[in-house]
Amino acid sequence: MPIQTFEEIIKDIDAKKFQPVYFMYGEEGFFMDQITEKIAKEALPETERSFNQNIMYGGDVELADIVMAARRFPMMAEKQVIIVKEAQEVSGIAGEVNESQRAEKKENPLTLYLQNPVESTILVINYRKQKIDKRTRFYKALNSNAVVLESKKLYDKKLNAWIERYIKSKGYTIVDQAVQLLATYLGNDLEKLVNELNKLAVILPEKSAITATHIEENVGISKEYNVFELWGAIAAKNVTKAHEIAYFFSKNSKDHHIAVTIAVLFNSFVNLLRYHQLAEKRVPVNSITKQMGLNYYQGKDLQTAARNYPKSRAVRVISLLRHFDARSKGVMGENTNVGELTRELVATILYY
Fold this sequence. Notes:
Elements: H1 6-14, E1 21-25, H2 29-42, H3 46-52, E2 53-57, H4 63-71, E3 80-85, H5 99-103, H6 109-115, E4 121-127, H7 137-145, E5 147-150, H8 156-169, E6 173-174, H9 176-186, H10 190-203, E7 209-210, H11 212-218, H12 227-235, H13 239-251, H14 258-280, H15 285-291, H16 296-308, H17 311-328, H18 338-351
Parallel strand pairs: 1-4, 1-5, 2-3, 3-4, 6-7
Helix pairs in contact: 1-2, 6-7, 9-11, 12-13, 12-16, 13-18, 14-16, 14-17, 17-18
């Protein structure tokens, strides 16, 4: 059975196309939870769930209990649903064989089940670990007879693209700066992002274009300044504005933590370094921004920064940001006020 994406699995569930086994693993719990909840709601009519839907928790059951439950037949229904949450707590759930099984040359019980799963059972396993061994008989059995989803954390452009897709699925559009604000201030906590985006869907009229102002006013991000305005001021060498924003951040360090500031500035200067490298190869400006996947405003900021920060200086600033990152985490053994450190960082970049 081919490995499916989250969207493909959801589409099949909506079409009532259920498979005998769903095995989901990885560090991003959001996708697992969404699929599990969807199956729990869609696979059985509500009247059949009390007898034919069983939710198990890894810390409370043995592997034999899960396999035994999966082998049972439904009670006065066509299907039964067995959901195993926190499955990583179950010994052998990922095909491991214990010493006694190895001595007796016995197969893992779940591997055996996967070779011939019961058609009337929908077995859903949430295994919250990053990896499983793909060289085993267990994984081969999974690939043959189960829907397998590797649920990965989303980062950078993938996170931004996911935010845009989610908003579009709700009937809205969103501008690039608003996407950047959400990704920077809320990070890749998809559950938190969905909560905030759903809140916007309630507040705003249908088919609205979500802007940075909407995010600032409704998601708890300061309307005064944000880290992208700081980058814009630094890129333009607008010393007065950069110091003004840095001072504001220093007085509101909970909402504008230095870790976020350093991360955004680091990525911006790394992009600037790449910009210089492409410019040295005489790549046209429009082609540079297209190759780097930047929008119009990001491209304009980089063009401005390239005039003010030559390649050698961009390299020094990247090194400087690493140094301040270490200081902010206490690696240097100093007890520095993070607000003051933000002001020092901005001043050093401007005059370095």
